[in-house]
Amino acid sequence: MTEQTGGPATRSGGPPASAARLTGSDGPPGTGRAAARPVRDSVALGLAVGTSGLAFGAAAVGSGLSVAQACVLSLLAFTGASQFALAGSIAAGGSLAGGVAGAILLGSRNALYGLRMTGILEPRGVRRLLTAQGVIDETTAVSLAQPDAASARRAFRATFATLYLTWNLSTLLGAYGAGRLGSPQSLGLDVVGPAAFLALIWPQLRAGRTERAVGLLGAAIALTATPFLPPGVPVILAATAALAGALTAPAPGSGAAEPPAPDGPAAAGLP
Fold first, then answer.
1. Are residues 124 and 169 in the same domain?
2. Domain that holds residue 145
């Protein structure tokens, strides 16, 4: 059969135009199932992680914040680690200014994510503000795990939308429920936050020796600094363990054998 301009075949032998539109790229043809996979994985991750907002809502009310204050914090800050750090600092008797400073420092890592994500998401105009709000650990990890830019953008949007809605709804439910039930400490809810963190990092701890070493070093730094430093500061210091892990890890192309990268969020060690 001869090739015709505009027909199903192409001069380069590549995929038909319909397949290119389906995959959002000029790469190999995909199926509807493959194109939907980033969205499916992202929604599942957003729902799973977003429910930890229940723990934050309870912790925020237990630290002395009102239900409204907890909800506004989730709406505007939308960075779980910083929010937990702020609530923990206030609950431990630290000043509001100190808690806010620690939360800002802890959340500053999102600015570094933004440097990497700008070239992938390519936001324009007012969309930059909305995109910046969504650049967090989970959206960055899921986006970078995708095989092409189109899939990365779909994954980012799906993760951001699902996680933002679930996190804020869970915050409201957790804060309102804690306020109705009484002190979270009396019900054992004060351990929910640390348990949620452990659940989030558990896949990373199982990934290899370097990850486990970083986790143990971070825990040792935090435990050592806690008796001597204000609340929130030990958490920031513990983050230096990640820098030590990055410096000791073998550089790409150094000859060390690397396992094949899995598809989907598992590539980032996420559930």
1. yes
2. 36-182
155 shares a domain with 236 = no
d(CA 14, CA 24): 14
Q: Please state the pTM of the whole predicted model.
A: 0.62
Between CA 214 and CA 201 the distance in angstroms is: 11
pLDDT, tens digit (0-9, with 9 covering 90-100), for 235-267: 667 767 766 666 565 544 444 444 444 444 444
Whether residues 166 and 94 fall in one domain = yes
Check whether residue 213 and residue 159 sit in a common domain: no
Q: Which two tokens stand for residue 167?
A: 């996190």
Distances, alpha carbon 155 to alpha carbons 33, 227, 231, in Å: 14, 42, 35
| Spatial contact of 67 and 88, defined as CB atoms under 8 Å apart | no
Residue 11 has pLDDT above 70, yes or no: no
